[in-house]
Amino acid sequence: MKAPFPKSCLCIAALSLALMTQLAPVAQAQTVAGNLPNVMILATGGTIAGTGASSTTTVGYTAAKVGVERLIEAVPELKSVANVRGEQVFQVASENMSNDLWLQLGKRVNQLLARPDVDGIVITHGTDTLEETAYFLDLVVKSSKPVVLVGAMRPSTAISADGPINLYNATLLAGSKEAIGKGVLVAMNDQINAGRDVTKTNTSTVDTFRSPDFGLLGQIQDSHPHFYRLPVRKHTASSEFDISGLETLPKVDIVYGYANASRLPVDAFVSAGDAGIINAGVGDGSIHKDVLPGLVDARKKGVVIVRSARVGSGMVARNGEANDDALDFISADTLNPQKARVLLMLALTKTHDSKEIQRIFSTY
Questions:
Q1: Do 121 and 148 touch, CB atoms closer than 8 A?
Q2: Class of domain 36-238
Q3: In a designed cystine with 261, which of 7, 214, 288, 327 is the match (CB 3.0 to 4.6 A)?
């Protein structure tokens, strides 16, 4: 008859089994983590980093208060889809976005995407000007790696804050192979929209971001991106624009069309030294009879004039509501006024020739 195992052996065996049981998931998690994409989260402020007086405060809150590390810590599920690192690029409410901040952000994005240890970038941003930043980056990023902008319509302290799930989806998307080469994307409300096409359509609802003319690119469901169409206009790696040596952008402003409008804003912008003016016209980019002479005079002084429309969707027809050929004006195609401004600023860093600028508007 064999002697029984000493109690000490049994205890050691039990302890070893327990340790193996505990360490197995850890080892598995480390193996999985090693295969995860490396996603950099760049924080810029906005409602997603906002705080309210109470859990029911969804308006009247203070934007741009929570730092990037707290944003990441609030969504521990991020660790299951990417190896994430955070960087606070700046901290502003997005109504205060500026050309200088755009240049700073664009240059930093390009620096990071050039690194082999960065597979994609998420940018947390206020929703007020998110669409403009998205389009700016769509034109100046020099990589096919995913860049995803994300925001929130409710502050981080709200009962049903949409920031955490939006950030999770954006990180998932930025680390996915499906998003490679599709330009700068916006991920909110479980939807994927193109940076060129998307716009904010509602002041407060969580489904505010839409692409009125062409629709969304896809959806995120069950932690997986599903694409149904592709952006066909040139963007990112195929773009001709380069901001690496730029310290400033040309001055471009927007003149809004309405009944009883006057040329006063046009003259003021010309006097201020604008290089370009976007006319946010009524209807199909129509220009008030009292505003037109001001735009004509501005063009004679070398100011580039682009006709867009205030209506929110649709193409502004060249030589439609104005004789663009005779006036030497530019048609904005399907770009809304705020996005037309972004493209014109970058176009003016390359040329002041109206025919070449019209080509640019037809390309991007």
A1: yes
A2: alpha beta
A3: 288
Enumerate the β-bridge partners of residue 210. Answer: 199
Non-local (6+) Cβ contacts of 189 within 8 A are 162, 166, 206, 207, 209
**Token reading at 43:** 């924080």
List of residues 6+ apart from 154 with CB closer than 8 A: 47, 58, 160, 161, 162, 163, 206
- Cβ burial of 284 (10 Å; 0-12, 13-18, 19+) is middle
Catalytic residue among 21, 31, 44, 47: 47
Helix orientation angle between 264-271 and 292-300, rounded to the nearest 10 degrees? 20
Query: What's the topology of domain 252-363?
Result: Rossmann fold (3.40.50)
Active-site residue, 21 included: no
Burial of residue 302, with CB atoms counted within 10 A of its CB: 0-12 exposed, 13-18 middle, 19 or more buried? exposed
Model confidence over 135-146: pLDDT tens digits?
999 999 999 999
Phi (first) and psi of residue 200, to 5 degrees: -80, 125
Averaged pLDDT for residues 185-191: 98
Same fold, 36-238 and 252-363: yes
The structure's pTM equals: 0.89
